[in-house]
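#struct-help
A.M.: can someone run this one for me? Single chain, 322 residues.
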Amino acid sequence: MTSEAQLLDELSLVRKGMGVRHPSVRDRLGPELRRLCGVDESTPHPDARVRVIGVLRRAVGALPADLALAAQVMFGLEATYPELTLTARQRRLAEAWNVDPMTVRRRCDLALRLAGTHLAEHAEDLAVADHAGELEATEWYTATTITTLRLDTPTPEATEVRTVISLVEGLDRVALRFGLPRPRSEQRTKMGLDVEMQFGGEIEAHDQPSAEYFVHYIRFPRALPMGGSHTFSRVIRVPAGQLMAPHFVSRPLHRVDRFELRVKFHPDRLPRAVWRHNAIPYYVSEADGPGRDLLRPDRLGEVAVVFERLRPSLGYGVGWLI
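D.P.: on it. Structure tokens below:
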């Protein structure tokens, strides 16, 4: 039986200093984390790092977006926060969120407790082997994502074309996360999602850490060199009969340089209002109602928006009022 208190102590040690990027990360893992990660004294430090990152990402994926980013920064998982100490990373996050550093420390502590609880509750069914090959988000970033959301089809579907850049030698897969918020009128307790690759990769594995949160592990046809780029496409569909919340918002946890979104409404069923979400903070609901940045669909029922240099944990996209 995994001890939650013991896990919290061990996670607290991992987050200090350089976090998971510490050169001797294996030696900073306590007995509970070693068991969860499948690590012992014979495990090379680079392999131990990949395994603990896989386990931590499993826990982080179950958290709300703001706490997930706090955890990413706290453990040293987030490439855009390269500071060598926990305090420095938290200070940078406070600046990004425009809040007091004490607020960030409280959120990091909450994220730590929730991550520890999740790992303790799922300790026995953690499939470490499935995640051992998952590469760090510090090893790649998104150069461009071009998404077309069709709402004039029998069920909503989004076609995404994404180009990623490798920051390491030999990148051959990525993990992509997708949230599907449940609208107030949806009676299901657990949302579904259909994903199909169009080109450039195959879905190697998938996970659903929570009722509205999905992770897809996509393997490329060939490994990328350092600095190499790769483009792939997937179609994401809401299952027939399942409702969709009236917004499409990207809230990245990692670097995204450009996000293009086109939403196509049915020309005979246009919404009463459409508006742009541009860097909305985590505490602002996408369902709060029309914003000031209103958009007017063209005669084909389409609107298009473009965002550059997206800031982690902030929301970018389009909302509408039916």
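A.M.: thanks! The first strand starts at residue 140 and ends at 150.
D.P.: also worth noting: The helical segments are 4-14, 31-37, 45-60, 65-75, 86-97, 101-121, 128-131.
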